[in-house]
Amino acid sequence: MKYSKATNYALHTMVYLAAVSPDKRLGVQQLAERFDVSPTYLSKILTKLVKAGMIASVSGANGGYKLKPSWEKISFMDVIDAIEGSDSLFDCNLNHQSDCVIQQVMESAEEEMENKLKKQKIADIAKKITVDH
Amino acid sequence: MKYSKATNYALHTMVYLAAVSPDKRLGVQQLAERFDVSPTYLSKILTKLVKAGMIASVSGANGGYKLKPSWEKISFMDVIDAIEGSDSLFDCNLNHQSDCVIQQVMESAEEEMENKLKKQKIADIAKKITVDH
DNA sequence: GTTCGCATACTCGGATAGTGGTTGTCCGAGTTGTGTTGG
DNA sequence: CCAACACAACTCGGACAACCACTATCCGAGTATGCGAAC
């Protein structure tokens, strides 16, 4: 089990947008070049972030992606949910009568991680960035 | 991203072995029937637990699987590691100069979950089981 | 009664295959900025 | 000088393909148990 590369690209893009300049519009080509991905693939990932309401896309010449006004509230968890979906990491598909105790344990452990990720805002990390990411 | 079904089967098997009777030997057929899996597939999963030193397998007539003496120390995390491997959930494969801050955030969040899973012993959960699981 | 051998029940592990999700690529369509042309 | 038009740059989104991990099955090999036959 691993987080997908798409999640990685999404997180890096968000942090980069926040670090460089939250108002600046950046073309997918520049972003793709920076992260060494194909532009069309990155575009597909960013579309998910657009649908989740985190960034805005501008078509046409000089178009690109830009953070939306409410960007400072966005957490790591938000981005991950947008890409991976918000399903639980663990599903007990066995049909026992009662609620599955194992399921409960796994979910509560997962919550620990999610709480940490909800606290971590993209904006906080963007401040720490110097050149890269 | 999801935990595999194999992990679910492994956890259920461990809890079941601990609940029924830690010394009792159970055939893979009974176990498979209980969890509604094919015996050969479950056997393949349990082999990983054997190699991790959690259970012992006995060949031949009246053979089966049994918990090893040290079973009470086994945590959820141990079982998950045995099945899924102990790699980090998140790998930043981008080559930036410095250490990736995003990677650090993800790893620390993951640790929160892992700590919880390390505290949860199979034996503790086995006590809560009545009939099923 | 004891021992040997065989059938039986069982796990082990490699080979194999289906399936679904991830990772990409390709391309046509739509959109915006810019420059050019014609009045 | 201004308006209309054409072109270039760019994103959008669907279709499609390669790849890999997960899931699962099959079967031959090895192993322990128990029963029966032979001495």
Automatic annotation (TrEMBL), chains A, B:
InterPro entries assigned to the protein according to its UniProt record, in alphabetical order: ArsR-like_HTH, Tscrpt_reg_Rrf2, WH-like_DNA-bd_sf, WH_DNA-bd_sf
Domain of life: Bacteria
Protein's UniProt keywords contain Protein biosynthesis: no
Keywords: DNA-binding
SUPFAM superfamilies: Winged helix' DNA-binding domain (SSF46785)
PANTHER family xrefs: RRF2 FAMILY PROTEIN, WINGED HELIX-TURN-HELIX TRANSCRIPTIONAL REGULATOR, RRF2 FAMILY
NCBIfam families tied to this protein: rrf2_super
Name by which UniProt lists this protein: Rrf2 family protein
Organism name: Cytobacillus purgationiresistens
